[in-house]
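Hi F.,

I've been meaning to write this up properly since the lab meeting, where we talked about keeping a consistent format for the predictions we share between groups. The idea is simple: the sequence comes first, exactly as it goes in, then the structure tokens exactly as they come out, then a line or two of notes. No screenshots and no reformatting. I'm using this chain as the first example so we have something concrete to point to.
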Amino acid sequence: MPSVRLDKANSSPPSEVVSHYLEAIYYMQAEGEIVRSARLADWLSVSRPTVTVGLRRMARDGMVRLNSRKEIELTRRGERSAAAIVRRHRIMERWLTDGLGLDWVTADKEAARLEHAVSQVVEDRVYKLLGKPTTCPHGNAIPGYATPRRDERPLSVLRAGEIGIITRISEVAQREAPPLLQYLHQRRLVPRARVRIVEVDEVGRTVRLRAGDRELTLSAETASKIWVAPRR
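Output, unedited:
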């Protein structure tokens, strides 16, 4: 998903409930996922009828639309609002990890609370104090201040012998599997880490790789949540 222009003139931010919907749709679209009501209900841990009602209100307010295939898409207004929420979340994550020394998982949870309470003034101040970062601790671009890399691809598509530099960890993985985030952090599979594919087991659907002085075996599913910039 391309970077979204900063829009700080909006004096009527969406409610917390609508913010959760916008954020979830933004994250899934950023990973190239097709967003449908059932998927959104699973993500938000609510019933499908609840999602239907919520989406109807958001469509009425010009935040989302359904295309001809019944897929949920953000409108321009919805994308601007979603980007503002994600931007604040990622800046807060940076502050919590870089400034307060919290671990990835704790920082993500706390940032989810702060993103609904921090004012624009505080957000701007924190951003400048942090040195104007361009990504969250997990490598995802901060909307309005950076754009996603064009050369990155999932670790799972690399073949034996290929080398990659980790660029980011999927936001979808962060929200759906916090233990995975902790697992990757503990094993130093973090942005800027260099990894080399040792073996790809197509039958067992695993990837064996070397990171630093250690060899690790990941499931293909886990490897698909790690994005890398390939290196020769």
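Notes:
The longest strand covers residues 194-201.
DSSP finds nine helices and eight strands in the chain.

If this format works for you, I'll send the rest the same way.

G.
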